[in-house]
Amino acid sequence: MVLNFKRLSYTTHWTPTSLATEVLQQHNVPPSGKHPDGRPHYTLPALIDHTPQDTNPSAQSVRLSDSTRIIEYLERAYPEASLPAPDAGDDYPFSRELYPANSRALHAFVENHIQNVMKPPIYNLYTVALYKSKLPHDQVDYAARKLGAPGVTSIEDLEVNGTEARAKEWEKLRNAFRVLEDVQKEAEAYYSQAQNPGIPSRDGTGVPVFQPPGLTYSDFAVAAVLMMIRNLSPDEAWPKVRVWDSGRWGRLFQEVERRWAI
C-alpha cells in the first residue's frame, strides 16, 4: 500500500508467515522485536532496499522489518516521494507524508486500538474464513498450533458460534469503530476551527481522515482492516461495516484503495 501511495518502484516476494523467521534470517533482515522469552521475533512485511548501492557500490543494502520502521525509513530516505507531483499527472493535492510532525501519538493509539480491540472480534467471527485465506503452508502451521487444545478438534471449533455469542462479538466490533469515529470527528473539528482554506469539507460527502486534509498512517491501517473484512466476508460483514457511521468507513476505504492502486 505505502510503496504504491508514494509511487516508489519495488518487486514483491510472497513469503508464508510461518516461514518468516527462516526466510528473513536467510536474507539478513533483523528481527522486529523479541518474544517474551527473549528469542528474536521476525515479522512480515519486510523491506530490502538496494538503492544506496546505486550511488555507492560499497554501501550496504537497507534491510528492515516492522511496518513502522519501514515507513520511517521511506520517509527519511525518499522525502520527494511525499510531495505532490502535478506535473506528472498527480491528482492528489496533499502531502503523502504518513507521519506528519507531532502525529506519532495519534497513530500509535490507532494502531494499538486495531490490534487489541478491533481485530479480536473479527478473528472470533471469521476464524474459518481466515484459515481458508491463508497460504497452504500457513494453514498446516496454524492447524498444528491450534488443534488439540481442550475442546478443539477442528478449525470450526475455534470460531464463535451461537446467535447470542456472535451478537456480542459484533457489538465489540461496532464499538471499536465508534471509538475511531470519535477520533476522526475530533480531528475534523480541530482542523475546521483552524479555518485553513486548503482543507476540504469533511461533511457526509467528503472523505473522513484521521489527520486532515490528506491520508496518513492511521487511514492506511484502518483501510487494511476494512480490506480484511471485505475479503473474509464480502456478503455479510462488509455490507454492514462499510455503511456504519453514515458510510464513513466505506468512503475511507474507497479513497485509500484508489490511492494505493498501481
TrEMBL record:
InterPro entries: Glutathione_S-Trfase_N, GST_UstS-like_C. Residues 27-61 are annotated as: Disordered. Residues 1-82 form the GST N-terminal domain. This is GST N-terminal domain-containing protein.
